[in-house]
Design goal:
Elements (H helix, E strand, L loop, with lengths): L2 E3 L24 E7 L6 H8 L2 H4 L2 E7 L3 H10 L4 E4 L3 H8 L3 E6 L1 E2 L8 E5 H5 L12 E4 L5 H13 L4 E4 L3 H10 L4 E4 L1 H9 L3 E6 L11 E5 H6 L1 H23 L5 H12 L8 H10 L3 E2 L7 H13 L9 H4 L9
Parallel strand pairs: 2-3, 2-4, 8-9
Antiparallel strand pairs: 1-3, 4-12, 5-12, 6-13, 7-10, 7-11
Helix pairs in contact: 1-10, 3-4, 8-12, 10-11, 11-12
Organism: Falsiruegeria mediterranea M17
Pfam family, one: NMT1
InterPro entries: SsuA/THI5, TAT_signal
Length: 337
């Protein structure tokens, strides 16, 4: 993982979130670490940082970057990160059950009419007949870990098609990409900025859309330690307010496209500092634009989707049957949708 810090970054102001106002700012130079992946789907945090929305709340933010969801959940529980955005995983739920973590809002969502996560086949598997999700039976489906969002998606997709797949845990997204390119695994599902980039380069084939199998899927959530949720309310509300302003800017520029062409270009340039930063802008731009899925307004959380994910974890024996949505979610911070 890598760290990146910039204090007091300022820029254009975006739409104001409707979370409770506590003053301007409510805090003063409160240092915190925010966990993230180098994905377009984490753009709300990057925008809040670069445009000074965290600074407006008195938050001095440092990013800590991860390559999978489970290690991020562990970092929140251990205090190595204060807030983070990632998918619900079995590890996160178990940490919540132990009183170490709480989901406080929603982030990335599948939404009808917006191009979302893709189902991929390796070239070798495609040539052997894996041209649609209906042909997944007996195939190797890549996941980071058991109980990850990839595991959930693959299980829901294969169940809907009435077939059985073999899940292959590879720990990191980078390792999965390598395995897909070499044909060591047959299938995977991933956010569009990665899926379309790989397919456009001829490395994989797109064979379906996740939203066709899991409509209105709450892909990622905002979460923190149980201690922060319970005892650091001002700080937590300040974080969510800044995060929500970043989401508003992102959605207006790249999802709803109401902010104009220049705002869209500016947004892509901002995100490029964090996503595909090792590529020239001209090569990264299309992939970043392709990754523009909805980030929920005001960190709203789709509780029906959260419940479906918890029910799946229970059906797989990955979490205790006694765990409820209240175990995982502190619903006092953000609206439910």
């Amino acid at each position: 993982m890598t760290n990146f810090s910039r204090r007091g970054a300022m820029g254009l102001l975006g739409g104001a979130a409707t979370l409770p106002m506590l003053g301007t700012p409510a805090l003063a130079n409160t240092k915190m670490t925010v966990g993230a992946l180098r994905f377009t789907s984490h753009a709300a945090s990057f925008v809040a940082f670069e445009r000074g929305y965290f600074a407006d709340e008195g938050l001095d933010v440092e990013f800590k970057f991860f390559q999978a969801a489970q290690p991020m959940a562990v970092a929140i529980a251990s205090g190595d990160a204060d807030y983070a955005v990632t998918a619900i995983s079995g590890g996160l739920v178990s940490l919540a059950e132990k009183g170490a973590a709480k989901v406080i809002g929603g982030a990335l969502s599948e939404e009808k009419g917006i191009d979302g996560q893709k189902i991929l086949a390796s070239n070798a598997a495609y040539e052997a007949g894996l041209t649609s999700p209906a042909a997944l039976g007996g195939k190797n489906y890549a996941v980071t870990q058991a109980g990850s969002s990839f595991h959930y998606m693959g299980s829901k997709i294969s169940a809907a098609e009435g077939v059985s797949v073999k899940f292959k845990p590879l720990q990191k997204v980078g390792a999965i990409i390598g395995a897909m390119k070499s044909g060591q695994v047959d299938a995977w599902s991933i956010v569009p900025h990665i899926a379309k980039g790989l397919a456009g380069a001829g490395a994989v084939k797109i064979i379906g859309n996740v939203a066709d199998y899991i409509p209105n899927y709450q892909v990622t959530t905002v979460f923190t330690s149980a201690n922060n949720a319970e005892n650091e309310r001002g700080q937590t509300e300040g974080f969510l307010r800044a995060f929500s302003r970043g989401a508003d800017d992102f959605n207006a520029a790249l999802v709803d496209k109401t902010a104009g062409d220049q705002a869209a270009t500016d947004m892509v340039k901002l995100i490029h500092k964090y996503v595909y930063a090792d590529r020239p802008f001209e090569k990264a731009e299309k992939s970043i634009r392709n990754g523009a899925m909805r980030i929920n307004q005001n960190a709203g959380l789709n509780m029906s989707s959260v419940q479906d994910q918890l029910d799946w974890f229970k059906s797989e024996g990955l979490i205790k049957d006694s765990i409820t949505s209240e175990t995982l979610v502190d619903s006092s911070y953000a609206p439910t949708i």
